[in-house]
Amino acid sequence: MPATENRPGNHGAASEEFRGSDLNLNAHPTTAATEDTVNLTSTSPARFAPTSAETLTERAVIRYLSEIVDSPRVSLGTIRDALLQRINAEFALENAGRSESHSSSGPIQKIQSLDERTVTRVLLARHRIVSIDLSGGRPRT
After folding, report:
1. Which of 33, 40, 126, 129 is the most buried (most CB within 10 A)?
2. Which residues pair with 21 in a beta bridge?
């Protein structure tokens, strides 16, 4: 099955997305072929390679922030909700790919809140910030 992409609609949910990663698609042309290299001229489907939750999260965050870069009035609450929805949609598609390919990797659990790295990325992308204190004001020891 060829990988397809549909951009999120007006409701902010991705209906389809790439399922997993095709191995070595971005390999340098001078890299020697290995058994993990996908033959792009072959008519056989590419093997499924599980993608980490961190990579899926990063991909969803980068894509969403680039979509709203010219919309300064989008509230942080709206951004949070949209990111949670998009990240969980990525996880659902990844889990479907893992299930269909009978991957030994277990399913990725949906998230209910954003991690510190994602929050920091959003704040830095949306506001002119000098520093961010994730310690809650506790002094360093």
Report:
1. 126
2. 49
Provide DSSP, 24-74. Answer: TTT--TTSPP-TTS--TT-SSPPPPB---HHHHHHHHHHHHHHHSTT-TT-
* Cα 47 from Cα 45, distance rounded (Å): 6
The residues near 5 (Cβ < 8 Å, ≥ 6 apart) are 16, 17, 18
Nearest alpha carbon to residue 94 among 82, 115, 109: 109
Instruction: Please write the tens of the pLDDT for every residue from 66-94.
Output: 999 888 889 999 999 999 999 999 999 99
Tens digits of per-residue pLDDT, 88-119?
Answer: 999 999 999 998 888 888 899 999 999 999 99
DSSP state of 12: S
- The ranges assigned to domains in the chain are 53-126
Longest dimension (CA), the chain: 59
Give the pair of three-digit tokens for residue 62. 């980068």
Helix or strand holding residue 125 (H, E): helix 116-126
Residue 21 backbone phi and psi in degrees, to 5: -115, 140
